[in-house]
Amino acid sequence: MTSRQQWIIVGSIVGAMAIALGTASYFLRDQLFPVTVGTQAPDFKAKVLGANQYKTMADYKGQVILLNVWATWCEPCKQELPSLEKLYQEYGPKGLKLVAVSIDDFVSEDSIRAFGKNFGISFEVLHDSTHAIERVYQTTGYPETFIIGPEGTIRRKWIGPDDWTSQGNRSLIAQLLGLPTPRAGTSGDTAAVVGLPRPSKSEP
After folding, report:
1. Count of alpha carbons within 13 Å of 199, Cβ hemisphere only?
2. What is the pLDDT of residues 8-39, one digit of tens each?
3. Residue 104 and residue 31 in contact, taking contact as beta carbons nearer than 8 Å
4. Domain residue limits, the chain
């Protein structure tokens, strides 16, 4: 065997190993690079309703973000909307960016906008019919929510509906905004009012 043939064999082996490693990394990416508390929030791209305009993480750089992935047909999503709105009413004027990204793919933007109006939503609603945000954020269902600090780090990940007016949630938002810790009992328990189910899984 000539030296050239040996190098061809070595090159073929290295190439095969690289392909195998790349394939394994792709299928194991969620395990190798999990999106969880303490990691940098991935970028996303979602459409502004009724406009030929998109927003990405860069549009919220340096701000406290509550990113909610939801759908109009999702019953648990509907159940938690009142508490999200109430949280936004309290902390939106103080700097909280509440961004709800709808992943509806068979619903028009006008319908999504009408849905939000019917629920009295005043926070920002974007649309991602491609479901790309689900892949990059490794969501496992709806709703799923990420609280992101001004430095871009995920501070809390919550799977399922939650009471966003709870003392713990409001305290975390206040802390990230540099505000005094809210007193217990200063905001109503929306979960009790609307019968919001408690989620079964969360990441602290």
Report:
1. 21
2. 666 666 665 655 454 444 444 455 569 999 99
3. no
4. 1-33, 35-203
